Amino acid sequence: MRRGWIALILALLMLVVFGCADKFVTSGKISMNARNWDKAIVDFNKALQVNPGNSQAHFYLGRVYKEKGDYLQMAAHLNAADSLDPKLKIESDKLRDDAWYAVAGSADSSMNEVPVMEKAANEYFEKALEYQSAGQADSATKYFNQT
User: Fold this and answer.
1) Residue 63's closest CA among 19, 55, 20?
2) What distance in Å separates the CA atoms of residue 119 and residue 3, rounded to the nearest whole number?
3) CA 55, CA 100: separation in Å to the nearest integer?
4) Tens-place pLDDT, residues 7-43
5) Alpha helices in the chain (DSSP H)
6) Which partner from 37, 63, 72, 114 sits 20 to 30 angstroms from 141, CA to CA?
7) Is 36 helix (H, G, I), strand (E, B) or coil?
8) In degrees rounded to 5, what are phi and psi of residue 9?
9) How far apart are CA 91 and CA 89, in angstroms?
């Protein structure tokens, strides 16, 4: 009979502890939907303090960090979520892909600046050659250093 009570008390204690973690996850989701990223991070971290093995808290932290552009934190939490619950891997991979496309897209837009910079470098180089041909080494050096 005593073992039965101990088992019941342990079961209730686990429900209370994990129920608190779920409360923080729910609060984090609400904050996330309101785009209050910092509050969501606090809530999900509280859920992890209660239950470090909470795959949902890790997964949602990954989503929040993706929105904030902190891809290292995103990857760390998505990896933790995947290892705790392999069923989350498909959704985690979608988030990773979205982050990759966001980074690659911003890299593509900066590539438009390359021809402008290349043209400017060529102009400096041509000017440096003109000064060098005219025997003006100091001016030539100044333009060579800008290429």
Assistant:
1) 55
2) 82
3) 22
4) 545 444 444 444 555 899 999 999 999 999 999 999 9
5) 2-33, 37-50, 55-68, 71-84, 89-111, 114-133, 137-144
6) 114
7) coil
8) -65, -45
9) 5
